[in-house]
Amino acid sequence: MSWSRVAIAKKQIENNKISDVTLCTGSLLNLPFADNSIDIVYSSHSLEPNCGNEMQIIKELYRVAKKYVLMIEPGYEFADNEGRKRMR
Fold first, then answer.
1. Residue 3 — φ and ψ, nearest 5°?
2. N or C: which end of the chain has fewer CB within 10 A?
3. Residue 19: left if φ>0, alpha if ψ -120 to 50, beta else—which one?
4. Strand (E) or helix (H) holding 72
5. C-alpha to C-alpha distance for 28 and 2, rounded to whole angstroms
6. Which residue has the higher pLDDT, 83 or 60?
7. Residue 69 is inside which H or E element, if any?
8. Which alpha helices (DSSP H) does 1-88 contain, by range?
């Protein structure tokens, strides 16, 4: 996540009076969290642009997950030629 998206999230958290939230940025290859420290790890279209590092990223997501890892990624086999080219 970029700092600009974190700033938007921070504003939403403040506007909705939500507490006990930690926002940060980091590398998918070296997440800034302890092992088994996050109940639900959610990733949406984060693996696709990291061709060649997918397994390292997945291992890192599982490292920090306490209970669940939810990954929503495009399916190569369902994509058209343009989508497959972008994924490669």
1. -60, -30
2. C
3. beta
4. strand 65-72
5. 12
6. 60
7. strand 65-72
8. 3-15, 54-64, 81-87
pTM of the model: 0.72
List C-alpha distances in Å: 51 to 32, 38, 70: 22, 25, 19
* Type of residue at 36: N
What DSSP state is assigned to residue 52? T
Type of residue numbered 56 = Q
Task: For the chain, give the percent of residues with pLDDT over 70.
Answer: 99
Q: What CA dihedral angle connects 32, 35, 40 and 42, to 10 degrees? A: 40
Please choose, from the candidates 22, 24, 20, 19, the residue with its C-alpha nearest in 3D space to the C-alpha of residue 6. 24
Kindly indicate whether the domain formed by 26-87 is annotated with CATH number 3.90.10.10. no
Q: What confidence score (pLDDT) does residue 45 get?
A: 81
Q: What is the residue whose two structure tokens read 């940060």?
A: 24
